[in-house]
Please model this.
Amino acid sequence: MTTPSPELARGPYKEGFHDDLKTIHSVPKGLSHSVVDYMCDVKGEPAWMREFRHRSLDIFLKTELPAWLPGLRDLDYDAITYYLSPVNKSSRKWEDVPEEIRRTYDKLGIAKEEQKLLGGLGAQIDSEMAYHNIQDSLSKKGVVFLSCDEGMKQYPEIFREHFATAIPPEDNKFAALNSAFWSGGSFVYIPKGVKCDIPLSVYFRINAEQFGQFERTLIIVEDDAFCHYVEGCSAPVYTTHSLHAAVVEIFVKNRARCRYTTIQNWSTDVYNLVTKRAMVSSKGVMEWVDGNLGSKRTVKYPSCYLIGEGAHGEVLSLASADKGMWQDAGAKMVFMAPNCTARINSKSISGHGGRASYRGLVQVRGEAPNCRVQVNCDALILDSNSRSDTYPVMEIDGELVTVEHEASVSSVSDEQLFYLTSRGIKKEDAISMIVNGFIEPIVKELPMEFAVEINRLINLQMEGSVG
Model:
């Protein structure tokens, strides 16, 4: 049975449906150490992970929210369900996934035929992966693409060597929350010299009400290797709040390259609080392509720690804030070695009273001379009720460092609209043309199917924004 959902101000949200799925594993609402023990028992985890989870929960409970991070004070952690699963285990064959879950993904457009375009495909619903598979051609090269739970079991040494070393639970309050209740996500290992040119893709779906999804993604790209990882997200529309607090850790080894593409399209009742960090070794390249189009509140700053000489980091970020949304997105670049380079290109759109913020950090440490970074922040405000803010922080301790920062705020002007409408273009189409031109530098970096979808979503949000 599918429950219809109301339309959002940003236009019809086709992902906002809710399916009645049979629950196999669940816990009572609220934070507790008993929930941690239940998860460890159900998952059959080793003793070190149980201890890690309990320690992380203690850290979360004693850690305060930063004073600069408003908009989260009304989040009731005891109203959230921290573990719930409609599946016992992940399937490698689509036909083995329960029929009602396959129907959910069919409605989302994650059809079986799309798997032919991907090197691997994963599908997580609520707390667990329902499906995870990889093409034989990549598997034969040694590429590993598993749920994070299975990665811990099948590759324990590699997993433990890297897990929670880039983002320990002490890093921030929501990293600690994820560390306590993490479930699902992806474990990706690309062997030395292997080029995984076909994207590995995962779709994360929240289905339950007042639910917390805490996937954990761990990607290791060995020397001279390449990986492109793509993720999408959505959730039903409810009158209550849900929570998404993911952690992504990436290790880009010497001369390796990784691209991580995200299009998060949450419903406006989801708090989206994500920590993403890549450790980039000598002459390695890390590219974050980050799209944020939904949620009640987003807090996300993909980061690169350039730990090897000549490393390069990029963040291409797009945030679109519609009615009731506050997108606090940005990027962090930390230079820890000589001769490193980085680029941040951030664009935001605010309409229908939405608020978009760029919050960025550029830190060049004393042991990192001769580095260069370029930061561009552009905001487009579509009406007088909307807002855009920029909070750049730059800490430069290294020598011979070049830092470029450029920021702009613009609106859809009457002159632009007059120019286009006087040539026979409808006003709505003129607004779309202006907005699509504004976001084009980000969209052109997306895979084709994501580029088409992001333009569709932006156009829905822009309806009625001007005039």
